[in-house]
Amino acid sequence: MRKKKLICIILIVLIIGIILIINIKENKKYQYYVEKLEKINYFLFMQNNKYGVIDRNGNVIIEPNYDIIEIPNPSKDVFICKSNYDASKNEFKVQVFNEGKQPILYQYYIVEAIALDSVENNGYYEKSVLKYKSNGLYGLIDFSGKKITKAIYESIDGFEFNEGLMLVKKAGKYGIINMNGAVVVKPKYDKIYSDKYLNSNGYKDSGYIVGEKTNDGMRYGYINSERKMLLKNEYNDIYRIEEKNDSTYLIAFKDGKAGIYNKKKNIMKHNFEDIEYNAQNDLLIVQKASKQGVIRFDGSVIVPIEYDNILFAGSYINAKNGDKVDIFDENGNKEQNESYSSKQDFNNKKYAIVSTIEDEFKIIINDSGKVVEDGYSYAQYLYENFFIVCKDKKFGIINDNGDSVIECKYKVIQPTMEYSIIQLLDENENIEILDKNFNTIVKPSKTSISTYNGLLKISTKNEELYINKDGRIVKDIEVENGDNMYPENIKDYQKIDLGYGCPYYVIQSKES
Question: In a 3-state reduction of DSSP, which class is residue 182?
Fold first, then answer.
């Protein structure tokens, strides 16, 4: 397993290198890629497929002679340099240096950074602790080399979603320790997962789903964030209803049947094949004998358990049996108009859009009961009192009176609400970009659209435009001066977003 993980790490490094590194020219201009952090003093760079380290001023701290370099905390001068991989031992030769290029932590056979797992933050590694290896086992040290734990673990890895917690393996069993070495969950389980609960404290209040192997397969239990065992290891599967913030609600499967617990208390018996929570309406879709219905947490029935499929559309429930659809509101009242095949509400229930069995779409203003209809084959709520509609295979925009705002003559209308813009594409593939007031921002003949520093970047044949989240054009100078997180003496840069949740930069140094 460790060998596979090591190979994956090497592949990731090589892929990032291929993406970000442009061939070094004879004038010795380097290409650097940098991860943006709140405080960043040191950066990786690559030359000839080897890694080195520079500081904020572009000075080379570590020459590019290494296969991998880990910078656990880019505000501190601890550089873990790996080279000469030995496949027989599944190990690199490891050296650790400080800013003065002096060896540090050399009293330990191997020192490694602890990679974070699925943590949404500004780094790859635990920022204040490292792991060391002695006699084939691992322990924790701080950056000064002080031992936090003895080398007693078969492995130490970052625990998913929780920076500051480590998943450890001891005697073949998994547990959790914190950065002080204290045991959070005893190492006696065959599997441990985070319940992925997220609130204003991040994932600090999340609990642990723990698994033990039995003769009948894996059985799961649940330990909360206060380290209390709420459910014993006797369930086929457990997952938390993450959206419920008032208490710990768990859906647990026992003997193939699902039930619900509020902390330790079983509030819904194991009578269902499946249970799915709808957070918007605080209701449950349940399945029994392959049929679905909707109930509340107290067990009261909203939609009878007699439908093939249940779909929530705003506060409306579309319940389908064969080709027939029954529509209910969140209180279980059934829609009387049998010509409707679906219904969904918008804008705090001010509007509803229905589709009919004739495949036409209608807009209903709920307060007045007014129906806006004109043979639309599609309708989509846009914002305020505006709707995207399709008629005769052409798209346009109307208001809630049915008045045309944008004529139905476009091949595509695509809103990008994060940036308050609307993109139009006509039959000749011409693009027009509008602000939310339907004023034209730009009509580029050829364009590509991407994101840059939180802005929408529109690249045309002759220029580049940047649009902020208010739908306003931002001048280039505002973009260039909008971030000071790259080395101070390196001015030419280009941001590349690799989609990992962390912004990257390609930075070209001055000639050396």
Answer: coil
Which of 34, 38, 62, 65 lies closest to 49, judged by CA? 65
**pLDDT at position 476:** 55
d(CA 512, CA 500): 32
| For range 159-187, the mean pLDDT | 96
Supply 385's token pair.
């009192």
* Torsion angles phi and psi, residue 388, rounded to 5: -85, 130
User: Could you give all domains of the chain from N- to C-terminal order, each with its CATH number?
Assistant: 214-272 (no CATH), 274-330 (2.40.10)
Q: What is the pLDDT of residue 40?
A: 73
Upper half-sphere CA count for residue 266 (Cβ side, 13 Å) = 10
- Rounded distance between C-alpha atoms, residue 119 and residue 486, angstroms: 23
Q: What is the pLDDT of residue 381?
A: 97
- pTM for the whole thing? 0.79
Average pLDDT over every residue of 271-286: 97
* C-alpha to C-alpha distance for 142 and 148, rounded to whole angstroms: 7
Distance between CA atoms of 171 and 23, rounded to whole angstroms? 48
DSSP 477: H
Closest by Cα among 315, 280, 313, 277 to 295: 277
Q: Are 81 and 97 in contact (CB under 8 A)?
A: yes
Average pLDDT over residues 354-369: 95
- For 311-344, the pLDDT digits (tens) are 999 999 999 999 999 999 999 999 999 899 999 9
Q: Taking a C-beta distance cutoff of 8 angstroms, is the pair 3, 90 a contact?
A: yes
The whole-angstrom separation of Cα 405 and Cα 383 is 13
Question: What percent of the chain lies above the pLDDT cut of 70?
Answer: 83
Q: What does the longest C-alpha to C-alpha distance in the chain come to?
A: 80
Among residues 28, 32, 3, 4, the alpha carbon closest in space to that of 16 is found at 32
Q: Token pair for residue 21? A: 């590194």
